[in-house]
Amino acid sequence: MLSFSGQRVVILGMARSGVGAAKLIHRLGGTVLVSDTKPKEQLMQPISILNAHDIATETSGHLRAGQEDWNLAVVSPGVPAHHPLLHSFAQRAIPVWSELELAARALQCPWVGITGSNGKTTTVLMTNAIFRESGRQTEVAGNIGNALSELALDLPEEAIVVVEVSSFQLEFSPTVKPSAAAFLNLTPDHLDRHGSMDAYLEAKARIIANQDGNDLFVANVDDPYVRNLTHYARAEVIPFGFNLDNGVTIQNGNIVFRNGTGWRKVMTASELPLPGRHNLANAMAAVGICCGMGVSPEIAGEALRKLSPVEHRLEFVREVERAKYFNDSKATNVSATITALESFERPILLIAGGRSKGGDFQALRAPLRRHVKTLITIGETAEQLENDLGDLARVVQAQTLERAVEAAHSLARAGDIVLLSPACASFDQFKNYEERGKAFKTLVKDLG
Q1: Rounded-to-integer distance, Cα 145 and Cα 124, Å
Q2: Which CATH number is correct for 8-94, 3.30.365.10, 3.40.30.10, 3.40.50.720, 1.10.10.10?
Q3: Tell me, what's the pLDDT at 339?
Q4: Half-sphere exposure of 149 (CA within 13 A, CB side)
Q5: Sequence-ordered strand ranges (E) for 149-263
Q6: How high is the pLDDT of residue 432?
Q7: How do the domains of the chain map onto residue ranges?
Q8: H helices of 92-154, where?
Q9: From CA 142, how far away is CA 123, in angstroms rounded?
């Protein structure tokens, strides 16, 4: 078992993953300092958890973290690779790991890593549901549910954990080796951090870098970036896409699976409770993972038929005066918003905006022209959205979400769709996309 006996470890960031990593290292015998730049008043809850485990904390800066000697540094996903403290660690030959790297080294059971620009949360939940339907003990972790480090020592060898994996986590994960890795798609996202699509792809591709012939790589071969990676994979590749002669695909309106033998039906595609072509792709990825790991296609289909909509992802909120309101707050990049727009045939009043992640709003022009009659803008990117898209639809600069919902309510007509799908991060006005989505649902439910 992994041991940190006699080791001194510093953790940067006191959010969920930092707290989980600290507790794990403490249980493995290490001495830990958790350091954060936020003031103490904003960190009282994690501080109380860490103090209960006799774990030291540092707030309002990284003074001790930067000056003392450490055997290892663990960084939270929010710490970028160009952070000056990481340069200092490199100069002093202090290894830097992500929380994912730490937890994966401690795990005793197989794990599945699911990455991509869009659809990760939905695919994690689909995969988890299929494994549970098959009778496997399973948990979800990563960007969804618990930090993986919270579970690492408590899962038996026969369990399986399904992990939502971001590019930020993979940046400092030199040895991660999931039993099955799924790569869903790659579209412009987080370019404010990675700088280019090539760097973004390089970070994501680390999920398969250490795999071998005993592992699975479930790949969306309809995506050119992902398809190209299959040529470099050492794991067994299970492709998925909409017109294939192997792997997981759609035939005659059915989701079907084939892996070296004849085709087997999973389910009729129209039976999937979640709408949209993108959710069919997510379902195919989940089938590829689970059936590739021994679950029967029939059981996979049974689990998928029972699914409920995912919160904040094309989530129906309510109907008001015959207009339907949908919460797609998890659409934090342009590609996700395009997917949302293409999921509806009715006229859309789109609420969009927030903090830019470096995406190109010009990519929204074609779907906006086809589907949107009114664009209601909020947040820091409101003016940019109007400049890039204002010639295609009526624009209302609402600035705040509350005013946006009020404007949508006054403009919507019977049969319209009111869609919160921001194409931006939430951090200019909200703590995260979940808080933004919950605020939207509350505002919609309060409408007369």
Answers
A1: 10
A2: 3.40.50.720
A3: 86
A4: 26
A5: 160-164, 180-183, 216-220, 236-240, 247-251, 254-258
A6: 93
A7: 8-94, 101-305, 315-445
A8: 99-106, 120-133, 148-151
A9: 13
Per-residue pLDDT, 429: 92
- Among 375, 379, 425, CA closest to 402: 379
Whole-number pLDDT of residue 193: 56
**Cβ atoms within 10 Å of 180's Cβ, excluding its own:** 25
| Domain 315-445: assigned CATH number | 3.90.190.20
Q: Are 144 and 17 in contact (CB under 8 A)?
A: no
Please give the Cα distance from 151 to 140 (Å, whole number): 9
Q: What is the DSSP string of 391-425?
A: TTSEEEEEESHHHHHHHHHHH--TT-EEEE--SSB
- Asked if residue 202 lies in contact with residue 167, where contact means CB atoms within 8 angstroms, the answer is no
Model pLDDT, residue 51 = 95
75, 86 in Cβ contact below 8 A?
Answer: yes
- Tokens at residue 374, please? 């009114």
Q: Which two tokens stand for residue 88?
A: 């200092």
- At residue 118, the pLDDT reads 85
Torsion of CA 115, 120, 124, 126, to 10 degrees: -130
Query: pLDDT below 50 — which residues of the chain?
Result: none
pLDDT one-digit tens code per residue, 331-368: 998 988 998 998 888 999 999 999 998 778 998 999 99
Homologous superfamily (CATH) of 101-305 is: Mur-like, catalytic domain (3.40.1190.10)
